[in-house]
Amino acid sequence: MAAAIIEASKKHPKPDQVFSYGTAGFRMKAFLLDSVVFRVGLLAALRSQRQGGRTIGLMITASHNVPEDNGVKLVDPMGEMLDERWEAHAATLANASSDEDLVAKYEGLITELKINTSVQANVIFAKDTRESGPALVAALTDALNAVGANFTDYGLLTTPQLHYLVRCINTQNLPDTKPYGEPTEEGYYTKIAAAYRKLMQGKPRQGQVTVDCANGVGAPKLKALAEAIGKDIFDVKVINDAIDVPSKLNSQCGADFVKTQQRLPPASQASALARCASLDGDADRIVYYFCDSDGSFHLLDGDKIATLAASFIADLVKAAGLADLRIGVVQTAYANGSSTAYITKTLGLPVVCTPTGVKHLHHAATKFDCGVYFEANGHGTVTFSLAAHSAIASHSPESPAQATALENLRALVDLINETVGDALSDLLLVEVILAHKGWGPKEWNSTYTDLPNRLVRVEVKDRSVFKATDAERRLLEPTGVQEKIDSLVGKYKQGRSFARASGTEDAVRVYSEAGERAEADELARGVADIVAQF
Ligand code: G16
After folding, report:
1. For the chain, which has fewer Cβ within 10 Å, the N-terminal or C-terminal residue?
2. Which residues participate in Mg(2+) binding (predicted)?
């Protein structure tokens, strides 16, 4: 084995670079990633062996990042993000200084983690539409072949589709667990489409929704999903679907563009009050928006999706006679203050705040029976505990109204991709809720008013010097910076601002909100100036 790894590793030399597993795996300029992907392949096989041969997923994507970037992340057996304790092991292999050192570190992990290497490793993987994807897949398969892992290449998929497949495969033959679904891309469409059709039965058609697919993998996959549902029930217009022009990925379009610019993607020609949505490059995030009759732009971001979903699920659970299920919402520091107030005061639901990164939110959400988690940037889903699954499956309704609510709740569970934020499943979730409530985007938007806010990206010499605490709401280092931010924030009514190092881009992000638009912008500029001095 050692000789095979050394031989294969020679083709994938490590550049002079320190690698770290960030918010969502390793992510950087694609030309730096060859050795990283090779080594993450080795780790995927070890992870599978440590898990008794259960299938591990590996996704090659840089999601919302520019086309020149790429990345790699691992998916654990139930479709969740890699166990955080293994992120350090990924970094250990990625940073091994030579082929021999790599084997030494690999064998060190086998001993440290008590891995039985006679277990057959099973890995599945997929990639997004980036030009660098195929070469990175070649590096990956070299690693998997070197250690004799079984693997399946699923080609082009959205990230959440890969998460779905991993969970489906690992729940196929379990004694006490219902299989999550058929472990094929087709099975994904069939399951979600059936749930959507069920939930839309008897509901008035809401007119067309326009979806900007960021010129990424979401475009062909959304078209396939729409086909599976049927045009009579799901009227979608797909824009920004040029996946054969790699430079267009996430450029002037996509969820990140709309969230940070707070304006329409230029390609959008939606009419007033029409529902519009934008996905990101690997379709794991979604934001909605619309233009009012006076042309003003309104963003319906992850916070608005979370509040919509939480209020709908809370009502449905109660109507189904399952009021004992504990429902909660998980947010990050980026959540608009008005959304948090709305959830706690109007909806009467608990809110938990975690650091940025789906891995943190997901973990916190699983502590509730129904955990609704969304980052403001549109990344989120709903998780159901085992107790919730079994209560929803086995409850006997006591009235026709309860029976209807229960049927809808069961279909909703099938509609939602519980494994991770999934833009396609979230799109349908929003469409269903709006149809059930008889709302357009304007009614949805009027549930509460966002505090004016601004999100900016600041390029700094070394983002690693920015160390945050308190769910990333305060900076511990560099010394003195937080005091400067505090004193600036104190000058604005309803002011709030924080800065934190991005885990996916070489930059620091600054978020601000305040009572007035101009003040939120001014505060963001002021904090960005403080940060830029370092
Ligand atoms: C990834 C993570 C998200 C996170 C985003 C930005 O999203 O999955 O949880 O919000 O990065 O993270 P950061 O602010 O650390 O750069 P994606 O859609 O890029 O995979």
Report:
1. N
2. 63, 280, 282, 284
Of the candidates 307, 306, 356, the one whose C-alpha atom is nearest the C-alpha of residue 334 is 356
Q: What is the CATH number of domain 302-445?
A: 3.40.120.10
The verdict on whether 63 is a catalytic residue reads: yes
CA pair distance 485, 475, nearest whole angstrom: 9
d(CA 93, CA 341): 44
Q: Within 6 Å (CB) of ligand 1, which residues are found?
A: 23-24, 63-64, 280, 284-285, 356-358, 375, 377, 379, 502-505, 509
Parse the chain into domains and list their residue ranges: 2-156, 187-296, 302-445, 453-532
CB hemisphere CA count around 334 (13 angstroms): 26
Q: Tell me the CATH architecture of domain 187-296.
A: 3-Layer(aba) Sandwich (3.40)
In angstroms, what is the span from residue 65 Cα to ligand 1's centroid? 9
The residue type of 222 is L
Ligand 1 atom closest to Cα of 65? Answer: 19
Residues tagged in the binding site annotation for Mg(2+)? 63, 280, 282, 284
Q: Please, what are the averages of pLDDT over each run of 10 residues along the chain (534 residues)?
A: 95 96 94 98 98 98 97 97 96 98 98 98 98 98 98 98 98 88 98 98 92 98 98 96 97 96 92 96 98 95 98 97 97 97 98 95 97 98 96 96 97 98 98 97 97 94 94 94 96 96 93 96 97 91
Cα(145) to centroid(ligand 1), Å? 31
